[in-house]
Amino acid sequence: MKILNVVGARPNFMKIAPLMAEYGRHEKIHAILVHTGQHYDEIMSKLFFSELSIPKPDVNLEVGSGSHAVQTAEIMKRFEPVLIDYKPDVVVVVGDVNSTIACGLVAVKLGARLVHVEAGLRSGDRTMPEEINRILTDSISDLLFCTEQSGVDNLLAEGISARKIHLVGNVMIDTLNKNLQKAGKSNILSVLNLNSNDFAVLTLHRPSNVDDPVIFGRILDALTIIQNDMPVIFPIHPRTRKSLVSCSLGKRLEEMPGFRLTDPLGYLDFLKLMSNAKVVLTDSGGIQEETTILNIPCLTLRENTERPITTEIGTNQIVGTDPTVIIQAYNRAVNGAWRKSVLPPLWDGCAAERIVRILLEEL
Ligand code: UD1
What we know:
Elements: E1 2-7, H1 10-23, E2 30-35, H2 42-51, E3 59-60, H3 68-86, E4 90-94, H4 98-109, E5 113-117, H5 129-140, E6 143-146, H6 149-157, E7 165-167, H7 171-184, H8 188-191, E8 200-203, H9 207-210, H10 213-229, E9 232-235, H11 238-246, H12 250-254, E10 259-262, H13 267-275, E11 279-282, H14 286-294, E12 298-300, H15 309-312, E13 316-318, H16 323-334, H17 351-362
Parallel strand pairs: 1-2, 1-4, 2-3, 4-5, 5-6, 6-7, 8-9, 8-11, 9-10, 11-12, 12-13
Bound molecules: uridine-diphosphate-N-acetylglucosamine (UD1).
The site of uridine-diphosphate-N-acetylglucosamine has 19 residues, from helix 1, helix 2, helix 5 and helix 11.
């Protein structure tokens, strides 16, 4: 069975790593890896391949950055000849980035069977570019692998046949479990001169938060208070760095001595940082899941989540962008008044194994 796998942006890499490893255990499978090049920097892409032992991509489409339409169209144009050339039986896409929908659309139009890993997640917010990518990818997929029951329920409610849907757990947690020990050896705490359990970690890159100077400013209001209490480590996404300049907010950071900007970190350093933090503040999707497994309080700086299980039985809480609400939640987190998490069903490190078994059975 020829399986062509697609990655494009940073959050895809930790999802594809366990699948590529699992394919390697089956002689029947010929796995091909295509990188769209949506993310292309050393620190946004290359580092993850070496750290997570992902094989070098067979093809790199090198699309780079652009508006949504340009980026999506460019991926489609460059992916089509690759697909015609390799003629895979199956195309596997992961997550919800522009590369996911662009390659999915090309695949089904050329008659390849499409598999979506991390299907069914819904924030209910259609202004979020990823939400559109999720809905569209799911609607054209032949097999849909879900991380949590809400995903299954959402797909059924959208009229997708139960036959196509499988609850398999979370490939991102496969990667976390596999790398936790290795991450323990990272020296990032000493590099940043931090004591375990005595700092906060922040990530921020959603367009709704960082492209709007008013909202970004409100988040900084909360962080001004937090950084007086403990260091806030902020590995800054390239989009956010640009926004700081265009929103003229860079100057505010100079007046916040406890606020510490770093370049984006590799997987292992970031995992070490997160697992030793007192609290994590984020607008990322994946980090909501990782903090639940690590049992670290997570304040999600958004109005909704597509990963509700992390708020129901995990350590995640949706706090939005109102500084008062953020500070109240922060105080509860640092004072230990935070729920401990329960492991979500099937988040046991064996999701990739289940997915590959089902692929072999069903296709
Ligand atoms: C994308 C995904 C988002 C994911 C995020 C993780 C979509 C719609 N969004 O958003 O779901 O959470 O990746 O990072 O697919 N840039 C660099 N170097 C790179 C890549 C990007 O400097 O290697 C800069 C680009 O110049 C661009 C900006 O970062 O202007 C944003 O990149 P883009 O891929 O458009 O979207 P993200 O915001 O990263």
